[in-house]
Write a structure and sequence with these properties.
cell membrane, ABC_transporter_permease, membrane, MetI-like_sf, transport
């Protein structure tokens, strides 16, 4: 349908799908979203696992650090974006520019540089989400039977060998779940691009959901926006099925 909200919807057949194939901006948005996923998924999973291992190690004040790590999760994303905007301010007053200035690196215009804007947004999402990923991994660590580690230590295994031979494989169900939710979250990224960059500079942070929003609610092309949403659904479904095939198998402790 060609449905501009105001007026009567008009049936246009497959025209919206034909428009998708010819829409360079849609494919640019898909490429930006894919890049964002590459910047975001694996670092978020790795950082969440590292934080879970730290608080599971039994170090002093681990409960306090658990709260600190989880604090960004319960903080408003608008507040986090405001802090990020201050940290990565392009002028000399930006904290990150002040830090890199000690190493002789000139100030960077993070949100005005097409090469840097998307990685900075990915870093923001990593900071925001890693605390919740930590909780999932921490629960997984607590579910691993202790006798596996005891047997490994009797056999003379080092801590690193225990991690790669016991901890990491036994967390496979957690890897599967975390991979799915981070993948879905990465392809649905919208708020940081909307608040901090408005899709710029030079459309370098125009993600698929941001473009869908612009088409549907700014351009009032709801039929074409629906086509974009179906494409997003198909991509997420395909990636989820692939992850299920390789990560979704049950594990046996014996």
């Amino acid at each position: 349908m060609n449905w501009p909200i105001i007026g009567t919807p008009k049936f246009v057949g497959l025209q919206n799908w034909k428009n998708l194939l010819q829409d360079q901006m849609a494919w640019r948005a898909l490429w930006n979203t894919t890049l964002f996923s590459l910047y975001y998924i694996l670092p978020t999973m790795a950082l969440g696992l590292i934080l879970a291992l730290l608080i599971n190690s039994g170090a002093k004040a681990s409960g306090l650090f658990k709260g600190i790590y989880f604090l960004p999760v319960v903080t408003s994303f608008v507040v986090i974006c405001g802090i990020w905007g201050w940290l990565f301010r392009s002028s000399d007053t930006g904290l990150i520019n002040q830090v890199i200035g000690f190493f002789g690196i000139p100030p960077q215009a993070y949100f005005q540089d097409p090469r840097l804007a998307l990685p900075v947004l990915a870093l923001l999402s990593i900071f925001k989400v890693s605390g919740s990923i930590m909780v999932y991994y921490f629960a997984g660590l607590k579910s691993i039977p202790s006798h596996l580690y005891e047997a490994a230590k009797i056999d003379g295994a080092s801590g690193w060998q225990c991690f790669w031979s016991i901890t990491f494989p036994m967390l496979k169900p957690i890897h599967f779940y975390v991979a799915i939710i981070t993948t879905i979250g990465s392809f649905q990224i919208f708020d940081s691009a909307f608040i901090l960059t408005s899709g710029g500079p030079s459309y370098s942070t125009t993600t698929l959901v941001f473009y869908l929003y612009e088409v549907g609610f700014t351009g009032l092309r709801l039929g074409y926006a629906s086509v974009l949403s179906y494409m997003l659904f198909a991509i997420i479904l395909t990636l989820t099925l692939i992850q299920r095939k390789y990560l979704g198998k049950e594990i046996n402790y014996y």
